[in-house]
Amino acid sequence: MNPILMSLLLLVALAIFGRTMYQKIRLLMALEPADRFDNIKKRFKNVVVFAIGQKRLVGRKKERASGLMHALIFWGFCILLIRSVNLYGEGFVSGFQLPLLGEDSILGYVYMALKDIMEAVVLLMVLYALFRRAVQKPKRLHNTWEAYVVLGLIAILMISDLLYDGSRYNLIMLHGNPAQLHYFDNPTYGSEFLWTPITAGAAALVSGMGAEALGVAMVAMFWLHIITQLTFLNILPLGKHFHVITSLPNVFFKNLGYPHQTPKLLDLEDEAAWEDETLGLNHIHQLNWKQGLDLYTCTECGRCKEVCPTYTTDKPLNLYDFNDALKKEMLANADNIIKRAGLVRRIDPNGEANQIEKIKSEMIDLNSSKQLVGDVIALDTLWACTTCRACESVCPVTIEHVPRIIAMRQGQTLMAEAYPKELNPSLKGLERNGNPWGIGYDKRADWADGLNVKKMAEDSDVDYLLWVGCAGSFDDRSKKVSQGLVKILQHAGVNFAILGTEEKCTGDFARRVGNEMLYQMMAEENIATLNGYQVKNIITACPHCLNTLKHEFPPLGGSYNVIHHTEFIHKLIIEGKLHLNKSFDGVLTYHDPCYLGRYHGVYDQPRFILNSLSSQGVHELDRCKQESFCCGAGGGRMWMEETIGKRINQERAEEIVAKDTSHVAVGCPFCLTMIEDGMKDLEKEEEIRTLDIAELVAAHMI
Amino acid sequence: MAKVLVVAEIKKGNIKSSTTELLSKAKSLGAEAATVAIGADVGALAPELANAGSDTQYILEDAGMAFFSAGPYASAVVDAAKQFEADLIWFGFSESGKAMAPRVAAQLDAACATEITDIDLSGKHVEVIRPAITNKVMQRVKVNTPKLVAVVRAGAFEADTGITGSENVVKLAAPEADLKAVIEELVSEASGEIDLADADVVVSVGRGAKDQAGIDLVRELANDLNAGFGSSRAMVDGGFMAHNKQVGQTGKIVAPTLYIAIGISGAIQHLAGMNGSKVILAVNKDPEAPIFNVADYGIVGDLFEVVPLLREEIAKQKRKR
Amino acid sequence: MKILVTAKKVVDVELTMHVQDGAIVQDGMQYVINAWDESAVEAAVQLKESHGAETTLVSVGGGDNSDMIRRCYAMGIEQGIHIEDPALAKADSSIYARVLQKVYEKGDYDLILTGKQAQDTDSGQTGIILAEYLGLPCVSNVVGIDVVDDQHIQVSRSGDSGTEIVSLELPAVVNVDVSINEPRLPQMRGIMMAKKKKIDVMDLAGLGTSADAVNSASPKSEVLEFMPTETRKGGQKFEGDAAEITAKVVELLANEAKAL
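Above: the input entities. Below: the structure tokens describing the complete assembly.
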């Protein structure tokens, strides 16, 4: 078409784009480091599944239609990228063809057809998207002008390309191709227009125009397309559509194995850390680059908000706003963050103390003027989170929301000494007697009286340690679960023991509320005891204990094989060591505990067990498995009062009541308490019994 | 013969039961019993104090003694003790008693024992039994001094209506006011309400009552019995009952003749507050509620059904008398 | 304002106390700060924060109290004194009061804060006896403290007829109840700082006094033995038709228990 114009446009657009990207990347590099370069193969696989496969959009039953809509626009874009390259080529050289996709090969024609259809599909999807936003107005969506602009630009891209081709078609087919325009025409495959029905349709729309008009239209549409595309490229980094560029890397760098970054093990003895306030997340510049990338990538889709138990019950934790607030703060301070990183590099650890002091005070001047917790993120917001991970499991671009919250809580507890003081009785109980209720540690094994349970102190040569947990030891209701589990293990002839009064709280809730000091104290004491007995295998009925023992003890020196009691019972059944009778009478449903499902990935084993004892199977709740609705106790919330909005456990209890069941099975002592309490609040505790799987198994084993 | 001086507990012009109980015990031990009463308007109570079992009544009646002030009140007790040549000075279990006893002991260079449940004068040394370690164990204590000042646990001694004394009033001179500790104001508890610590019968309401309607229902029962109306922590935390109504480890400790727990599960902290009651009746929907482990009589049922029935049956019993 | 606050180390009352041969079984025992004294410490630290008071902690007896004292440092107490002497083995409230008197006389304190009773003895005497020995005004069972000026404070006392508001001329002794405040949880920064702080440990001689001066050989009372309390057992529990069982129970209350 016009190589000079093309070069100019490309030069300008790419220069601007390059500069913008440079700034964005520079900001990320100025943030804290993160090790996300391990296991490259697995990372690529994740990209294929989540980013390219659009798993969380297409694979999610809920809103599948809109998921498909986006997937099609995305796949359309991927396919049309090749078309774009072709067009740029055309801008330089008339009749430009890409290797492998030229008119000599069938692939070229297939691609023509594909591109043609995809343009129509994308256009249709854009119209659907506009319809959804403007007419259906789903609650989770934020209807910003940015969204409409982008949809408009995409529409323009499709339309301009179709009209460009349509004009071309008319000029070639109807007006005898006066300008000698190039088109595919292969004796075997025919003319390209045989393969492009949509273009033919577009052509029909403009067939009324004369040859000269068509020629102008064709050129105009061409440059409109190019300019729109280059403009679009440069708009992307400015808003939520940055995800178009960053989502693939964001998925690539997502945490492997454990669902998100485990809370950072803080070195509390490090005096420098106290001085520099690097314990916990206290300042925006303390985010690591992956977290910065997360903020770039948030598409503002609102799915996190929708599944969040606190948001659903009218508490001020709105993850969309959370991401947005952090992103704005990060971008507002971008220059200072970069400058600060530069100063850090200038610090010579062996240099003069005065020099270091001077640099450090300059660094402090570069801190944001806003308090991260307080101004940017409200206190109520920070403490409302139950760490259930529903947000993380629906996020289409795999953002890790929870670690930021924990890190901020760490900062609040350690540096600001500002945390909900209502936690004090539970924290003191932990400190003094190793359980949040503060009940004398000497009573920890009383639940096992008369059950003939071995203590490790008597005989530590056992196959399994049964980790009972605080609830299972002290809470009247949960003690029954411990007793049931013991019955099962003894019945199946398992060689196990408990720690008894030597067991202490794992410190899970202390960690979730940011109290690293207490957590480390509890962890270290427990690890010393466990290692003293050379414990290898642990069974536990509490998913919170499970999580801490398995994933958070290793950095402190404690590595054990830890499984949940439902996994173990499942194993016993499979191995023929335990048999269940399908004698359960009633309608059964199952509430997936967050820390068993979303943290540990165990969904099938509990169901297998329940199906083995219930002839009517398990009636699934609407919000089940990966999208199970939190009971409200996680994140330390069990030990805090719920004063804002509706009670989370009531919300869940109502859902269960609406399912018309007689029994709800759970696999966690918190869930057991919360859901049973919810039933009591609704006055349904006589009609609907809440039971742990261990209790059900104990009652139906042969 | 030992000489016991009982410090009378007087509230709103009435002599509390502890005074009679302590005097009965003194007489039953074969001791000579006197009593000392302090206040702005206590002279008229002398006959009643005699009737309760004292043979001498030391009276300090002075306008300046209207409000309790530990210093002057203790001085008056010391004065009476010296005049009576008391060996044993006993206080009822009250805040003023607890505030005065150590002062009196220090001034008389005597031992002091708080919350005694029993006393043995038979041996060479006086021995008392009292609780320790927040009431988890009992201790037997030997008194090494010739005199002993003691605060007696509520309801530890029994009143014997058969025992009387004789009127013999001795007026005490008003001591100096304590200028360094001046009582500015007394913020009274709501008038017209029966003090939990005094009441012979206490009815307490718990979470089972759910809301104001439930509380009002249980309050009717309390009114029927002329009982003190108390609460478990749950209803205080829920804002339904005032903090001074809370019976429990961190609230009030009561030991009435009859304690009726309605809709209370019986958490350890609550039990600590009413364990000393003579008879406990509990009503709760949950047969496994821990309250049934200490209740002498337990009714498993819905309080909304049972409380009206209780009121009916109690009214019937009253009519029988 | 200079504050002297007491802290006694006592057994952890959350544990079950076992009595054997007239003594409390020590196996598995845990020791903690007396809850009432913890409130006194918190009150002292609050006065430091609001009025710039200087705070000194004193602990008598108990063996190695350094953990407890460091915890108080972490809460905000500036100085700590620990008096330990074999002569105090049988100390009773009046002997403790004498020792505290000597500590007070060595300093220049305006206010003595103590917990109103100790969780091991349940006595509630030491603070009041100390006031008597020192001839200072004293209020016990205090649930609120307000500073009026350098010479006066006003306290709220939970009395028999309600809450008494009392003005005290300093120096004075105030014995607090746990309901006065919720003691803070020591935070990491405080704990780290406390590790490096010194504790003044001394015996009676070091305090400038002697066993005779505090009468330590003559306790006014002594514990002969410990006995278990009688645990209350459940009686009769009735289930069934509400009208029937209620009638039965009321009848029993009236005739068997004679409680109506």
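Note for the figure: Chain B is about 30% helix and 30% strand.
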